[in-house]
Amino acid sequence: QVQLVESGGGLVRPGGSLELSCTASGIAFNTYDMGWFRQAPGKEREFVMEIDRWGYITDTSIAKGRFAINRDNNKNTVYLEMNSLKPWDTAVYYCAARRGVPSSTYEYWGQGTQVTVSA
């Protein structure tokens, strides 16, 4: 059984930082690309960042200059470090996994962790 378990969310003031973690089980982690997504209330889920099986990173305008992603294959864990957080970063953050082959889609998802940025 595949499980992705996120942790590290919480309440943070604007300008603050958080590090999210996502630990996977039931997959050959080092063969999967790992991504972070988020969904704010009333909005569609959006892609934040991805790190592929080789360590190549894809980011977005959401993340550029503020967020960083890395992975520890020995711990089956992917991290999202978020800095300079803004109120509009408030969302449920999800990690997801897809096979590290061309044209794969995200097939496994975590349950999400809430991030709230508020004074």
How would you explain this protein's 3D organization?
The protein has 119 residues and is mostly beta strands. It is 0% helix and 51% strand. The chain is built from no helices and 11 strands. Strands 2, 4, 5, 6, 9, 10 and 11 form a 7-stranded mixed sheet that branches. Strands 1-3-8-7 form a 4-stranded antiparallel sheet, with no helix packed on it. Strand 9 and strand 10 (108-109) form a beta hairpin.
In summary, what is this structure?
Helix content is 0%, strand content 51%. The protein has 119 residues and is mainly β.
Per DSSP E runs of 2 or more residues, the count of β-strands stands at 11
Radius of gyration over all CA atoms, rounded: 13 Å
Judged by helices, strands and strand pairing, the structural class is mainly beta
| Share in β-strands | over 45%
Give the termini distance in whole angstroms.
40 Å
The succession of helices and strands, N to C, reads EEEEEEEEEEE
What about the largest sheet?
A: 7 strands, mixed
Give the helix level as a range of percent.
Answer: under 10%
Average residue pLDDT: 96
Q: Low-confidence parts, pLDDT < 50 over ≥5 residues?
A: none
What best-fitting shape do the alpha-carbon axes yield? globular
Number of helices: 0
Keywords:
119 residues, mainly beta, four-stranded antiparallel beta sheet
SSE layout and pairings?
Elements: E1 3-7, E2 10-12, E3 18-25, E4 32-39, E5 46-51, E6 57-59, E7 67-72, E8 77-82, E9 91-99, E10 108-109, E11 113-117
Parallel strand pairs: 2-11
Antiparallel strand pairs: 1-3, 3-8, 4-5, 4-9, 5-6, 7-8, 9-10, 9-11
